[in-house]
Every structure is written in structure tokens, then in C-alpha cells.
Write a sequence for this structure.
């Protein structure tokens, strides 16, 4: 148990140092094949924050008088979000001749997702506190997204060793896929129900 906690702590520290724009943090990750597969364990590490965010989103929906989606849709979206992008990036990295850097990038982005989800716990908490107001919530949301996009860009640029434009394209691809997965899950449910 201690070994697993130490492993996760080291990976999150590396992700945190990347968030502080420390390119040397890549060397702190377990960049082995086993480390690649273990990085998908980040889905479990981030799960409590995901559950909390979902609860806050549901609170906002109820407050707005909207119907709650079935819980399994959020779970499907969450799980697919961790699978689709790495699969697409495998093809992208092969196409760009970056196959040797693919695993390092996925390792970094998987652990970074834990920090990103944690950041949005704070943002959603701000959104649900009525006395803070809609304006502060919107500012928090936009600021968080700007920071996340920059963080994702830095990881792509650092881990893949690509030029700025390519890193920007990868970040756009990642976020478009996240939106597409969410929309696909909810549309598939709507058609089946």
C-alpha cells in the first residue's frame, strides 16, 4: 500500500512541477512500459474528484430546474475520456514520427488530468456558492480553462518535443475529442431512450 501511495505521490509531484513549467519534471515520471500502463490508474486517483464535480454539476442543474442525466452517462463519459484521446494520439504520433515519445506524453497527460480535475473541483465549488455570484464563477471558469489549455500545451511541447503550432493543434484535438465523447455519449443515450 505504501509503495502504491509513494508511486502516485511521485507521479503527481511530477505533474505539479510540469504545471509550474518545469520541463525537467518529465524525468520524474516512471517512463517505462509498466509506467505507461500504470498511468491509467490515474483514472481511479481522480475518481473522487470526478464524483464530487458530478454532484456539484447536478446541484447546479437542479437549481436551474433542469432534469438530471442518468449517472451512468457521466461514468461512461469519464471512462471514455481516458481511453479515446490516447488511442487517437497513438495514430497522430505515428503519423508525425513521434512514436518514441508517445508513451512519455500519455504518462504525463494522464497524471496531469488528476490535477486538472482537482482544479475544477475548486471552480465548481465557487460556482455553487451563491454569495460569490455568477461573475466570479465565470471568471474562475475562464481563468481555469486558460490555465488548463496552457498546461496541456506545455506538456505536449515538452513531452513530444514538437513546435508550438503542433502542440497547439494537439491541445485543440484533445479538447475537441473530450467534447465529442461527451456529446456522443449523451446523444447515443437520447436515441436509445
Amino acid at each position: 500500500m505504501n509503495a502504491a501511495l509513494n508511486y502516485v505521490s511521485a507521479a503527481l509531484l511530477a505533474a505539479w512541477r510540469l504545471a509550474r513549467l518545469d520541463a525537467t519534471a518529465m524525468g520524474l515520471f516512471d517512463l517505462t512500459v509498466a509506467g505507461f500502463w500504470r498511468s491509467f490508474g490515474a483514472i481511479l486517483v481522480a475518481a473522487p474528484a470526478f464524483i464530487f464535480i458530478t454532484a456539484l454539476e447536478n446541484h447546479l442543474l437542479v437549481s436551474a430546474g433542469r432534469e438530471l442525466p442518468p449517472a451512468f452517462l457521466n461514468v461512461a463519459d469519464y471512462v471514455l475520456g481516458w481511453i479515446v484521446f490516447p488511442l487517437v494520439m497513438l495514430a497522430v504520433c505515428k503519423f508525425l514520427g513521434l512514436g518514441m515519445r508517445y508513451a512519455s506524453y500519455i504518462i504525463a497527460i494522464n497524471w496531469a488530468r488528476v490535477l486538472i480535475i482537482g482544479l475544477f473541483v475548486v471552480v465548481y465549488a465557487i460556482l455553487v456558492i451563491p454569495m460569490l455570484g455568477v461573475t466570479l464563477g465565470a471568471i474562475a471558469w475562464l481563468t481555469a480553462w486558460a490555465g488548463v489549455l496552457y498546461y496541456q500545451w506545455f506538456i505536449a511541447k515538452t513531452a513530444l518535443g514538437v513546435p508550438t503550432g503542433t502542440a497547439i493543434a494537439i491541445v485543440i484535438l484533445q479538447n475537441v475529442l473530450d467534447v465529442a465523447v461527451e456529446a456522443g455519449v449523451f446523444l447515443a443515450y437520447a436515441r436509445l431512450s
